[in-house]
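Tutorial, part two.
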Amino acid sequence: MNVVESYTGHVEPGGDAARRTLEALTITKLSVGPMDNNVYLLVCRATNEALLVDAANDPERISDLIGHADDRPTLRTIVTTHQHGDHWQALGAVAGANGAYTAAHPADADPLPVPPDHLVEHGDTLSVGDATLEVIHLRGHTPGSIALLYRDPSGHPHLFTGDSLFPGGVGKTNSEEEFRSLLADVESRVFGELPDETWFYPGHGDDSTLGAERPKLADWRNRGW
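Running the prediction step on this input gives:
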């Protein structure tokens, strides 16, 4: 697996992974599967423990991303951001191969192929070695969609949004009620709490920042679902 060290937020389907190195964590992004799903491997630089966001597809490529050498990170946790099948095709294989714990919100747990070891609610935390991630429940794309927030003490926040927030809008919803719910949570729990320099990492496609998207919120509201 080739890993590019110059991180831009863009990776090609089936292409190289891209790594961002922070003081305490590395974040490596990889596109897998036919729907260009993003997989994010977070590794604590102090302990070499890892957390994977969405074991979406291609377990062999995810295994290559983790590595095969003796100094590869120890995958402790796999978080599934929501119940849609394109985000968990490799969950059983990757969890089984690494002996990793799995985590998801209880409202989205039943459809998953592996019952979650940890059920997480809004405001809970998960550990990646010495680093801490906060769970943000964003209701609408699915009942149990979650985002994960890392507050970098040496820089800006980093937010893993699953399919709840993308550059250009919130995630797909199936009714006006679901759209209003998702937009309200994104506005209050994300844009209302976090600064413009927050970098967010969606479940598909390129990354963005809250500052780049904030001026568009009114347009999203008017556009509707």
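The first strand starts at residue 3 and ends at 4. In part three we will examine how such features are distributed along the chain.
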